[in-house]
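Supplementary notes (optional reading)

For those who missed the lab, this is the record we used. Protein: RNA helicase. Length: 1230 residues.
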Amino acid sequence: MSMHTIFFKENEGINIPDSTNGPRPEVPLWSVVGSEPAPAAYNNHYQQSKPPSLGVSAGTNLKLAAAKQSDQALAKKDSTHFSVFPAGDCRTAVMNGAKTTNYQTTSLEYDQGQFKLGLAQPLICGQYPYNNAEQCYGIYSAHGAQIEGRHIMVALSMGSEGGPIFVNAKQYNGIMRRRRWRAKAESKNQDMIMKLRKRGSGGRFLSTKKMSEKMQGDERENHHGSTGTDESQISEVLQSTSSPVSEKETMDQNEWWGKIEQMKTGNEQEMVIRRNFGRDDQQILADMAYQLGLYLQRRSGPGKMMECFCDRTILMEKQKSTYHVYLTDYLICGLYLWKESHAYNKGKALVVSKVPLPNYRADLDEQHGSNKTEIKMSTEIEERVGHILKNTNGTDLVQNNSSSSSGSATLQSKPVEMERAASLPEIDTDFKGLNIKLKQKQEKMREGDSVKAMLAFREKLPAFKVKSEFLKAVASNQVLVVSGETGCGKTTQLPQFILEEEISSLRGASCNIICTQPRRISAISVAARISAERGEELGETVGYQIRLESNRSAQTRLLFCTTGVLLRQLVQDPNLTGITHLLVDEIHERGMNEDFLLIILRDILPRRPNLRVVLMSATINAELFSKYFGNTPTIHIPGLTFPVKELYLEDVLEKTRHTIQPESENLPRNSRRGRRQQEPTKDPLTELFEDTDIDALYKSYSASTRQSLEAWSGSQLDLGLVEAAIEHICRHEGNGAILVFLTGWDEISKLLDKLRANIFVGDSNKFLVLPLHGSMPTLNQREIFDRPPPNVRKIVLATNIAESSITIDDVVYVIDCGKAKETSYDALNKLACLLPSWISKASAHQRRGRAGRVQPGVCYRLYPKIIHDAMPQYQLPEMLRTPLQELCLHIKSLQLGVISTFLAKAVQPPDPLSVENAIELLKTIGALDDREELTPLGRHLSTLPLDPNIGKMLLMGSIFQCVNPALTIAAAVAHRSPFVLPLSRKEEAEAAKRSFAGDSCSDHIALLKAYEGWKDAKRNRNEKAFCWDNFLSPVTMQMIEDMRYQFLDLLAGIGFVDKSHAKAYNQYSDDLEMVCAILCAGLYPNVVQCKRRGKRTALYTKEVGKVDIHPGSVNAGVHIFPLPYMVYSEKVKTSSIYLRDSTNISDYALLMFGGNLLPSKSGDGIEMLGGYLHFSSSKTVLDLIRKLRGELDRLLTRKIEEPALDITVEGKGVVAAVIELLHSQNVRYR
């Protein structure tokens, strides 16, 4: 048995790649410095039950011995010698400090001459558990508990054979829960004690001794003295006496090797094994899968999910005086263990697959994986609906033999005419004399005093110094990449240089320059600035265009627009005919639209040799884009900034004397450790800080600061600290505006309230506090650029919108929270999350630069320097971390070919699984057909700058004459909820929200009723009081109203609404059953099963299984729902998976407005959503539902193809039958 020893050097970092999750953060731990064969002594004694320790020097280098195939593990220190032997199939020994659920956590602690190993999951670590360099036998019993690093470790011993093994309390709790036991370890009276209880039987604290006796008693009762080492026996110690023990099957290895090998070479993607094999046999199957390069997934009852990679590996980290060792699970590379907090089926299922598998599979969940519902329609309703349909006789519809569909049949139709607001300016084609006229006007403007003053300022900008070089590069290259530091003037000057040069060269008449901006406010503010510098009115030579708002004319030669406006123009003009220069700004942000535009431009350039493209970035990552366009030239412009002093969290605390309080008085004294016990997951940067020795690293700081650092949490922003920093600046620092970077509107509004209530900063005569958010009305956004009156300090509360493009030129102080809201997308589990996350170093640099525009400034970073130094260099591109359905619709509307092929050409292509998920969703909602081509519905949705589900809701609302509710709900979902939740009046606020919902069990109805109440109050000029009394945000309510008008214009633009006959489109606006049905049509396939479990309801989705209602929902306090299904706007993953904005709906709403109705595989009913939803009933009822749904789908197909079709005339009978059915909602519960 060959062995090797690997040397590790202390205090150096390495970066170990992970084949599944990408590189892990580089941290200063141990690094490999060499290797040599292991001593022969170990090889000779490898098979012995107690191998000798391998003594090596523990000086500068630490030697780690790794056995190639060892079932032993030991850790021992004799004098200056230290050694560790891993267990399992170990081929490598690597070092990394990343702590994830992928690894079995093991702590190593020096105690009286020995290092002790503590394993987090002893029941899964293989056949032989490890214990202080000895192989242990016997049954586990509780031995005690102690605090170990960040965990409470529960001590288990193996009978009388050895000392304790320390197990993480949370994992131990999971083990206990396997057989109805629950355990909890707590500190009480300086001793570690455990609370043990059986489900439903209460519980009490037991001393470690009593705990041990209790466990040993269960052992005697259940095992009758057995001392086997198999994990199944160990788990039986923890079960209740009534739990049955199923008999294991014996596996034929040769038979199953052949089956798995055949699956690999065949066409099947996976093989499901439903056999009751023991753990040893399951391990053998895992070995087989690994050797064949496959994935094995095992679902074997409750517990926590664990993923295992690449053999057994030892990972070691030094924390203070403790070495922490991380061992991977015993299972082999590629084996996916499915373990949830509840059992999904009573048996066992193993899945061998050619591709990685998600956390949950409904088809393997026999209990909750599908819903079989019997439709019980009364005879009266059946006759009434049938009579209405019979009288219709199909005469009001064009009949065809197409099968039932989701209302989006793939019939051909004429292309939808684009909205007028999306088109770019029409250039005056009367070139004769126009070139001279433009040149004379430009020269005349330069004679004015204001323009001369502007020109003097412009000439001081760094961009002006590269004007000649820039214009020469533009003239001689199709593509140019320009990177410019904050304040260099690239955004305002480079487009202007081109405009001035074209006009001066008598090419102004044919010149058409477009400059894209990622945000509306950027497009408006930059256009206004350049117009002022040219001495013109905005909308003359320079203009802007954003969604449904523009200021331009036929004279406009330089247009600033959002990237989305340009993308919609591409539908009409795929070659961007007539555009001479295109500048794409802020490409470093790697927004979805910007990366999408770059793919299109690279394809257009060969067809448009005269088109000039300039890519502008605020950070020095120009090489990436230069290579993408064939090593095109680059220009870098240095910034014009004054020195900026940087203060980190530790400095801010010292300077302001602000004290951070622990989050809870019930936490242990060390609050960071207490949070570790309570919070299930942490981001790597926060964990990095929490592992820091505060007293050692910050010994030069005051005791108060160190105490606050101990209490600080990187998971949640302390608004009190932000307020303290602002007040400190206002009291003790010089003049100058303050720019505060926050993550979103919630933090902005809460801080705004705190500052207004502040005794000092709340004085409006001395301080002007302004919010800045991308969703605010553009008129309000412009206020932040104005200088305040004398002796008034301006304080701007902003999101990352203020990082680049827009410049608030009087800012001297920046307060940076270090985070931004960023979407992440788990393609494997089809789950998107929008949560605050740490920014990149590039973004931090941008924020810092905002403070040095006019004079030396100060940047207050409200996070430790150690976190800043560990931040990634750049953010992950949006295309790699968000759902792609909107993008896929754009690709098809622009006729860019196969979606996956096109996206593979991106600068950094997205995960193919993300693309596949997006295409699947678009097919499910009826936007794409089976050939991946746009349906008539898809063509309409592609013209709406909205999420496809929200767009479909609007269309269905207009078709079924409840357009006002659809507009309101769509605007609120697309923007944000108007409900606010002040901590001091939380219960009152929740009650107000519930009052709007009534008994509808619907957050969407609550939104609708709140808006309607606000609208009535506004007519009476009492809207402010209404908002105050009902805990609503006035700004958000106004934004919802503005967006409603925008959406109405969009519907009118594509012919679905005639605004002059508004009443005709609101016949059913007060019909809540119809409104909920429209919600179902728009939000499908976001469907949840509501299943009664005793006095409560359990909710299940197809993608992730069991979910919970979001605490802020009106449904959070509902225990029993009247209807069997729920639709929701989004799933949110935080500590759990929550449904945000949900509505309880009936069977009939799903049957009429859900997905395709297909014959069930069993032949006894109909199904949808791939069989996840199954409906059965009598033949007459099923035939009636099929017939009505078929008529409804044909009506919808005609209406979508012919928006002017009046369904109140031609489809009157069908609509009446549907409404009759909805009004007879099947109010019953499963």
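If you only remember one thing from this example: Residues 253-357 form one domain.
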